[in-house]
Amino acid sequence: MKVEGVVVRGCGAASRRDYGAATMLYGIDVHRGTLNIKCARGWSGRLCPPIPMVLGGRLHDSWKGRLADVDVVVLRGFMHVAEVLAPVSLRRTFGFKDGDAVSIDIVSYKPDAELAAKQLGGVYAVP
User: Fold this and answer.
1) Number of domains the chain contains
2) What whole-number distance in Å separates Cα of residue 43 and Cα of residue 28?
3) Whole-angstrom distance, CA of residue 21 vs CA of residue 47
4) Cα–Cα distance between 54 and 120 in angstroms, integer?
5) Given a cut of 70, is residue 94 above it in pLDDT?
6) pLDDT given for residue 54 in this prediction
7) What is the pLDDT of residues 13-63, one digit of tens each?
8) What is the full DSSP assignment across 84-121?
9) Are strands 51-55 and 58-67 parallel, antiparallel or unpaired?
10) Looking at the domain assignment, is residue 62 inside a domain?
């Protein structure tokens, strides 16, 4: 399964977020900011079940992925835009510019149910 699209500029809001939930659930120490990808075909029916994650007080669908040799977390954004969290600046690491094509492999992943419940503030059943 893949998330495919082109790099687009974000509004900078992600640089002010606390990414502790991504570190807790996925074990990725997240670099400030995200890579935004405008998805070519939208989201419906294309990915395995998402893992719910709370960031900035909002619930997001998330998936673990790989971009080349980098582990990433993909968040479902608005208007077919995916936000990609990574331990490095993906723009700098891969030289991405707005309009560049990107393909991220989504990998099967089940978080620890106790950690997932803790970051959601309640009970979580691993899909």
Assistant:
1) 1
2) 23
3) 21
4) 6
5) yes
6) 78
7) 555 566 777 887 888 888 877 899 998 766 554 668 888 887 777 788 889
8) EE-SS-HHHHHT--TT-EEEEEE------HHHHHHHHT
9) antiparallel
10) yes
In a domain, 85, yes or no: yes
In the chain, the DSSP E strands lie at 2-8, 35-39, 51-55, 58-67, 70-76, 81-85, 101-106
Under a CB-based contact definition with an 8 Å cutoff, are residues 36 and 99 in contact? no
Q: How much is the pLDDT for 68?
A: 94
70 within 8 A of 64, measured Cβ to Cβ: no
Q: What is the pTM of this model?
A: 0.81
Structure tokens at 83: 């936000």
Residue 26: which CATH number? 2.40.30.30
Q: Is residue 54 part of a domain?
A: yes
